[in-house]
Design a protein that fits this description.
Glycosyltransferase; alpha+beta; eight-stranded antiparallel β-sheet; 27% helix; single chain; five-stranded antiparallel β-sheet; Beta-galactosidase, Chain A, domain 5; 2 domains
């Protein structure tokens, strides 16, 4: 449900954001333990169990409360955290947090303390007794003795040591330098990094998800704030990468403030916009301040209108509504409070250019924007300014939970999001939206997961996926301003049933859902309309309801599908897929057709060559299509 103090906040000024933070923090207060070292918000646990989950509840609100007090804001309940630190760092206390081991969740939560020591020592250091200061120092220093996940986690140790250094305490200079050298290796191009230096079979190395803006970029900006002069060469690189990154990352946000749902940890919700606040904190005008402020404030307003709270105002697990199916194995009831990272600019005084700026709308930008560093093509609909990501996929294996649905569907959208499985991989329960699914028993379907040779170029996304050892599909996704073309080349040694899913459209009342199965398959609800139009191959249209609570945006959803069957052999399949505010937005005047000549495919638009598979992996676009990539949304 909505939380009235948040939903009714106009969120226009710094004072509004300060009030929002305190309104969101107050519902946490009744859930402190007797010793104040634990915050217990529910019975849902992450795989690490307790007390690390309760430490999450204690530490994660600090990402907002620390900047609030650093910027002169008032919060009346600091004694809870001060007493909790005394209890949680005392090995003799029953609420002792315990020392982190290798790859331990406690190392994640220590980063907030590092920021607190650096910018809010009057609340998190000076009031502590000498004994508690010694305990806290020893507990934090333990991060220098353990192994961390080879990913954004390395920055946790950097932040902890920045905090120790700020208080004149011993810190692990050489360890920090080694971590920063490793983090440098994560950089891909254009300010984008992978979340780690390794891909599968390791658990790091993902591309394009929010661990780049809300983690790697976020922490790098905090680092530049404190060590801009002491480590100038590295900080200059971090600043330049942030400037480049901002040019692309603005395309993740639609005109209403919604951000693209993609990848893992989406239960952290409005942390999606934390990068914009971190730019302000680091005094980096990567885009004009009015634009940055507009991106930041619209995003907060959008989230505060979503039913993401309990009746008491506690954040729930889920995306736009409470939903455990979307959760990761590491999400506890306390985890969503990483969202408080968006409040970092509250550390700035009210005369900072960020806070003084008048909000500006989204700047003029290309309708089709290719981002090699994220391996995504980002499309802004010129009519609604919804954002869709055209995605070649990446090799994700079985981590994180439902990874293939979070990273390897053909498309993701601010309006239509995506679904995750609710049960067995059937058309209803298997979350088969936005992709080609295959079955060798016409009952259980496989979706692409090991997306190999992935590439994006000139508005085209390409990859190949081995569904079985004797079945492979090469897929080209060709973006246009109001939809995209999917072309699949299927090679199979077994008989298969194929199902192509379109965008899944949310709804709440069956009476408001209408469908059409004719030349194209259309689903319409008050949330929007989605369509599939077959372009090549013998296929029939259907409508499929998705499993209840499997969709990120609403409990119920329905998608258009195209079905076909295939004996062993080679086949070409093509369709147009689109989604819009209403079905009236679908452009009927554009006709696509496909011509197959041997091993090559040519895509025709209104009888003129638009694209072909010849050339690089992404194929070659016609001059007319290349010109269309420069058209503004």
């Amino acid at each position: 449900m909505q939380f009235p103090p948040a939903a009714n906040n106009p969120l226009r000024t710094r004072a509004d954001v300060q009030r929002l933070l305190t309104d969101l923090a107050k519902p946490i207060l009744p859930h402190f333990s007797a010793g104040r070292a634990q915050v217990h918000l529910g019975e849902t646990r992450g795989h690490f169990g307790d007390p690390a989950g309760w430490l999450e509840g204690f530490a994660r609100p600090l990402w907002g409360l620390v900047p609030l007090t650093a910027g002169g804001g008032e919060f009346e309940h600091w004694e809870l955290w001060q007493k909790g630190i005394a209890s949680g760092t005392d090995p003799t206390h029953p609420e002792y947090w315990g020392l982190a081991g290798d790859m331990d969740q406690r190392s994640v939560e220590q980063a907030a303390f590092g920021l607190g020591l650096a910018i809010a020592p009057d609340k998190l250091w000076e009031p502590l007794s000498i004994a508690t200061k010694e305990q806290l120092t020893a507990w934090l220093d333990n991060i220098n003795k353990v192994k961390l996940v080879h990913s954004n986690w390395l920055f946790f140790r950097v932040l902890v040591n920045l905090g120790l250094r700020s208080r004149g305490l011993a810190w692990a200079r050489e360890t920090v330098e080694a971590d920063l050298v490793e983090i440098e290796k994560f950089h891909v191009t254009g300010g984008w990094s992978a979340d780690g230096g390794n891909g599968p079979p390791y658990k790091d190395g993902r591309l394009g998800d929010y661990y780049i803006p809300w983690a790697i970029q976020f922490y790098a900006l905090v680092y530049t704030k404190f060590l801009g002069q002491d480590d100038k060469e590295r900080c200059d690189r971090f600043v330049e990468r942030a400037r480049l990154f901002a040019q692309d990352f603005q395309y993740y946000f639609d005109a209403h403030g919604a951000a693209l749902p993609f990848g893992r940890s989406l239960t952290y919700r409005f942390a999606q916009g934390a990068f914009w606040g971190a730019l302000a904190f680091a005094d980096i005008e990567a885009l004009p301040w009015p634009v940055i402020k507009g991106l930041y404030m619209r995003h907060l307003r959008w989230w505060m209108r979503q039913p993401i709270f309990t009746e008491a105002g506690v954040l729930t697990i889920g995306y736009t509504y409470p939903n455990l199916l979307v959760a990761e194995s590491y999400n506890s009831s306390q985890s969503p409070y990483w969202a408080f990272k968006i409040f970092l600019p509250l550390a700035l005084r009210e005369d900072h250019p960020f806070w003084k700026a008048e909000e500006a709308p989204l700047p003029s930008r290309r309708a089709i924007h290719t981002v090699p560093g994220a391996k995504l093509v980002l499309v802004t609909d010129p009519r609604t300014h919804d954002v869709t990501a055209i995605n070649p996929g990446q090799p994700v294996l079985d981590w994180p939970r439902n990874a293939i649905h979070k990273y390897s569907k053909c498309a993701y959208s601010t309006r239509f999001a995506f679904a995750v499985p609710s049960s067995a991989p059937t058309p209803t329960e298997g979350a088969l939206d936005n992709g080609l699914s295959l079955s060798d028993d016409d009952r259980y379907f496989r979706v692409r997961d090991q997306c190999l040779d992935a590439e994006v170029k000139d508005g085209v996304a390409y990859s190949r996926a081995p569904y079985w050892p004797d079945v492979e599909v090469r897929t080209w996704l060709i973006a246009q301003q109001t939809g995209h073309i999917r072309i699949h080349h299927l090679r199979t040694a077994r008989k298969l049933a194929a199902l192509e899913g379109g965008f899944a459209v949310s709804w709440t009342a069956r009476a408001a859902l209408t469908t059409e199965i004719a030349e194209k398959v259309v689903v319409r609800t008050p949330w929007g309309a989605a369509a599939l139009r077959n372009v090549f191959g013998k296929r029939t249209g259907e409508i499929v309801d998705l499993g209840a609570n499997s969709h990120l945006m609403a409990s119920l959803s329905t998608m258009p599908v195209l079905r076909s069957t295939h004996d062993p052999g080679e086949y070409w399949l093509a369709c147009w897929a689109g989604g819009a505010e209403t079905s009236d937005d679908f452009h009927e005047a554009t006709r696509f057709s496909v011509i197959i000549e041997g091993a090559q495919c040519r895509l025709m638009r209104n009888d003129e060559l638009w694209w072909s598979t010849t050339g690089s992996q992404c194929g070659t676009s016609s001059a007319a299509r290349l010109r269309s990539l420069e058209e503004p949304a």
